[in-house]
Amino acid sequence: MKRFDLTERTVDRYIQTIREAGFIIPRPKNGDGMYQIHKASPYFKEISELLHFSKEEAHILYNAIHSISNENLLKQNLINKLYTLYNSKEIAQTIVKQQHSAVIQNLNKAIIEKRKVILYNYRSANSDKLQDRRVEPFSFTTNFISTWAYDINSGCCKTFKNTRISSVSVLNENWEHSKLHKEGFMDVFRISSNQRINVKLKLSLRACELLKEEYPLAEKDITPIDDTKFLLETEVCSFEGVGRFVMGLCQDIEIVEPTDLKIFIKKKIEDFLK
After folding, report:
1. Domain count of the chain?
2. Taking the complete model, does pTM exceed 0.70, yes or no?
3. pLDDT for residue 49 is more than 90
């Protein structure tokens, strides 16, 4: 862990994520601390037999891919290259949780064939209601976390988090609004909207490290002030994402700007204490 500058908590989370994706990772034997993906794991055989990789190279590739956070753009670039080389649906299956694999595969099929879909029992984070959504999916966000799609009912492009979709039905209907398909801006806290708000936060070392662990794409917007203080300057789509992070580490974060973020958090706390 020291070699890669990772905390024990981060390593445990990576291993748990790989296990949830369906891979078998036995506990280390003889106390040597070595974790390995078992050869009986799903898809291990397929990737070990790729034309240009030996079994040893494929094993290293697997471990390398899964050691990278889902929000890291380098991981997305690697996956895109693998898609280009092998045009393999299994690539997507290896980086999403097993229970969401069918959702991703159907969305991927609809994107390739330029067809409409129905997202069954989609749970909206805003209303917390289950609703079927008729959409035209056209792109995935980093590492298949969400899907960009044109929402036919609302007449605009939105992101739909894939883990909130119960199932997907690919319709025998072609896209009708392809000229309106456009990916919007998504901030480092994974919130998307048409507005952008400048935010500056002064972070302690602890807050900085936790921010990079939980939201790796924020790292490019962080600059050191000294050895123990850091400044985050970024654009957010709303105060929801950044507000949750600040409230969880309020003793380690100073809001430099905007004042509206302080007002937002104050109201959240007042509503909670009512």
Report:
1. 3
2. no
3. no
